[in-house]
Amino acid sequence: MKSGFVCLALALLIEALLARPSGFLPGLPDTALHLGAIHLLTVGWLLQLISGVAFWMFPRHPTAPPRGNERLGWGGFLLLNAGLMLRLFGEAWRLGMGGPSWPLVAAALLQLVAVALLIRLLWPRIREIRS
Amino acid sequence: MPRLSVWMLRTALLALLAGTALGAWLLATEPRYDATRAALRDVHLTLLLFGWLVQFVLGVAYWMLPRYASAPDRGPPWAGWAAYATFLAGLGLGLIALLLPANGLAPAGKLLLAGATFVFVLLLWGRAKPFGTPL
Description:
By secondary structure, chain A is mainly alpha-helical. Helix content of chain A is 72%, strand content 0%. Chain A has one domain (2-125). Chain A contains four helices and no strands. Chain B is mainly α. Chain B has a single domain, classed as Four Helix Bundle (Hemerythrin (Met), subunit A). Helices cover 73% and strands 0% of the residues of chain B. Chain B has helices at residues 3-28, 35-64, 77-99, 106-125. The A-B interface holds A 42, 46-47, 50, 54, 57-59, 87, 94, 101, 104-105, 107-109, 111-112, 115-116, 119, 122-123, 126-129 and B 1-3, 5-6, 9-10, 13, 16-17, 20-21, 23-25, 27-28, 30-31, 48, 53, 56, 60, 64.
């Protein structure tokens, strides 16, 4: 949740940077910044906030550990944020300075594995409870 | 958690996985640009916005909002199931329309998505009340 809010703040800062006066920091690639900001909002903030609340509030397992294997959650959290940051810098590097594509490939893989881990963690806790 | 929410949340997670996998492929294969990629980017957006986000939020709201005092405590279940089926039909048609753009399915898909969401809003509307207000 806290890193989600950091992503939200970072995305808004980047969007503010996109409105800079022409001639100020001309080397910054606006396309990369805009794409990065959108993914910080949708993946970094929304997905992370929703996953965090779901991990907290979804029905708990009747046996220990009640919220499932927390290592899956930490793994997903670390990989997701690493992938997001790698994407942010990798895309700016590639579009702004002709950098290589490997950071984007790595960022894509990290985020995909992170989402798979989060789904693996949450899936068994989505279950019918009669009330 | 009611059975309808279980189905909606699990479908939403599958859409999240599919949308993320497609987005990861698009990111990893940059900087290729062509018409197919533009359509796939729209599929990525549709899967994640409607398939994942909207469906997940509606499913959680259907589960967690305050319930009516008398049965059916979450409103008529058939309406929820009908809206879920219509939502999926609209999503499916929308995705097909993005991949086969000349088939005229896009308006039908969007209409079904909007109609299903409207039914969910009606179902949830009466359950969104301040604390202490009788339902």
